[in-house]
Records
---
Amino acid sequence: MGKLPMRARLATTLGGAAGTMSRLAGRGDGSVIGGVIGLRLEPDLLALLSAGRQVVLVTGTNGKTTTTRLITAALGALGQDIASNAFGANMEAGLAAALGKAPDAPLAVLEVDERYLPAVIKATNPRVVTLLNLSRDQMDRAAEIWLVARRWREALAGARDCCVVANADDPLITWAASGAEHVIWVAAGQRWQEDSWCCAVCGSHLLRDELGWRCGECSFRRPSTRWVLDGERVIDSAGRVSDLSLSLPGQANRSNAVVALAVAEVFGVVTAQALPRLRDVASVAGRYTRLVRRGRQVRLLLAKNPAGWLEAFDVLDPPPVPVLLAVNAQVPDGKDTSWLWDVDYRVLRGRRVFVSGERRLDLAVRLEADQVTFDLVGDVDEAVDQVEGASLDVIANYTAFQQIRVALGRAE
Ligand SMILES: [Zn+2]
């Protein structure tokens, strides 16, 4: 803290005080309000707070919060303090707050909103930028994610002494990363392919086979990878094969874990050291947690966009475990629920399905079109009361997830 200029120190102190007051007033964990005030007093706060640290940035449409947590866990092997925005406050104020709270941590692992990545690269001069995937979010359509990819590409091409760890199975990620000086390619898989049918270089159709993807018209193709997710196993940069055996469920989390292992190696933490630490992560910001409610186990899954819903379906407990789907359309969720039509719900047939949330009727119409039978419920307890077995899975979008978490008593 001593090396910060006076103005930044003042900004951090006042921001921290505001965060404390916000916490005391019961307005969330106070991390963002502190950063907002700090940045207003010192617009260069992020750059000043990042100076002298080794910074890892993590971005992508899905998996940011989990991957940030996994990288933090892996780098724990170094035995140094790590600053991190562990609860997903991922715009500039959230980042400033996370750094301000850990002024002496030599390492920082920060989740960054996709749109802020170029500005944050500039401000923090990162050691590693981690690119997971890029697909349509709640309100966006393809044109917008192509614009995001273009801005990433320009920012990464201009970044010095920065190592990019990128998912080579996502063509748009590959295109964005390939302008960078140094890239470590990871075969992390790509389940959602609806936003990457076209070549980012020439616009032709991409072809896919078991070796990956390539353009039918130009030389743009999947680069050869140093790290591979192979089912339940990872093949590391030295060709060693290890079972992942994570506590976190699903293909998407295995993919996040392989990316985290690749990032850890940049810092000299090898797979044998990192993997046991990844296995210890059982829940992330309330996700995947199993809570007991009225004698039944309730597990919470967050899904914010079409690709996220596919990932959530992948980790559902098998039938007859019922599922509650909860959808809101507040500002953080996106006001427009037309994305519901991008998801294929037919996998839910033959399972008891409950539907709640402010936009439950929109979801109900969508499920009817896919011939999925369901019951409308007012809240999570109404669903729990109707569960016949021992457990219930819940998939909710952002604010619906937070509401249910509060209703169930906010356990981590
Ligand atoms: Zn092409």
Note: The pocket of zinc ion is lined by residues 199, 201-202, 204, 215, 217-218, 220 (CB under 6 Å).
---
Amino acid sequence: MIDYTEKIPNNVDLGRDRGLQRALEHWQPAYMGWWYDMGPNESHNYEVYLRTAISVEPDGWAQFDYVKMPEYRWGIFLQPRDEKREVNFGIHKGQPAWQEVPGEYRSTLRRVIVTQGDTEPASVEQQRLLGSSCPSMYDLRNIFQVNVEEGRHLWAMVYLLHRYFGRDGREEAEALLARRSGDADNPRILGAFNEPTPDWLAFYMFTFFTDRDGKFQLCALAESGFDPLSRTCRFMLTEEAHHMFVGETGVTRIIKRTCEVMKEHKIEDPAQVRALGVIDLQTIQRYLNFHYSVTLDLYGSDVSSNAANYFTNGLKGRFRETKLEDDHVLSEAEYPVYEVIGDKIVKKNVPALTALNERLRDDYIEEIADGVARWQRVIDEAGIPFKLTLPHKGFHRAIGNFAGHHISVNGDVLTAEAWEKRKHEWLPSPADEKFVQSLMTGRVVEPGKFANWIAPPLRGINSKPLDFEYVRFN
Ligand SMILES: [Fe+2]
Ligand SMILES: [Fe+2]
């Protein structure tokens, strides 16, 4: 169980280590300062129907109640330790899992933890203005739930930095509160976390695509030989599932509403669809293309010696590492990657160890494709002849083998001029964004009411009805 009588709720027996407790209690007001500045706009007095973990067990989400977000009990929750756990891959395979940081991997592990930790407050910053244009009270409650949990994910990484990395760790923990998404001088570390999330379609796409990158990164880190990292990631994954749910169902509901209107009025022309105040499927496809491509970049270079080292040294595994049936060392194996040569994309086998970023990206793409197929079903069931597609892996990429090339959604290598001419067939144009935002100029917060451009969800949160008062504004 989690101890909520402590100033910092935790299940790591924090009170036993006075120095660590003091350091974290010192960081806590800085975190609160960040939340007041960069957390959801104008929300500090709202009472929000939120879930709070009462234990790290699968049924530990029993606690739902009204909470003012600044009073949310952010804390430190690790999955219980498995005394028999081993390092499961790489050159240390078979050793007992590490309870302390091996000296030779200290700076690498710190970098991995900081990079993960940096994404958590970044997404809160990206989403901070969306409350004022929410399509319903239900959705407003959901974005706040996502925001407080991203805040908790930051706590998870900051605990590791404080507990295991001494002074360097404490400095990194402060820097995590100092960077700002999109800031010219002190931006967040990764590209996708500096892109704005200006509207709710972008928010749902972000939580579907980019939070799922979070899931895959956490899954790879949950395999780590450094046991405390593994244990914290396992608990973070239980929180991440809700974020992806919000994204997937959000897009589903937008598609559903658009299809309803198209059918009712027997129209297909996007201009006519827009005139009825819903988002045309072509614009949804362009948003999908954008969020998919910028998220693919988060996996890093297709061929990477860093990725090989992380794996060989037992720091970061593959997706579902222990379920894979091979030697978990990969000294002989190969893996295909793609390269642009002239005006062709060619496949090339490289040592599997160096292609681990690409492999994780491919695992991710497989799961994404399933989700997009579920969206497609909504369109098919409405009998509308429109196909949502995933663009080619090389489309609109800024990192790895496709960076610097112009690849169409179909995988054609284009000249810079041809790309410029056609890019807004595939990516949202300023006019698309302006249209989407024109639907979201105010918030819809009457209980049970939903904006015209989105269908209601199938059910409420925690078995509450759709017209439940999920947020009290005071
Ligand atoms: Fe997160
Ligand atoms: Fe998340």
Note: The two ends are 32 Å apart (CA to CA).
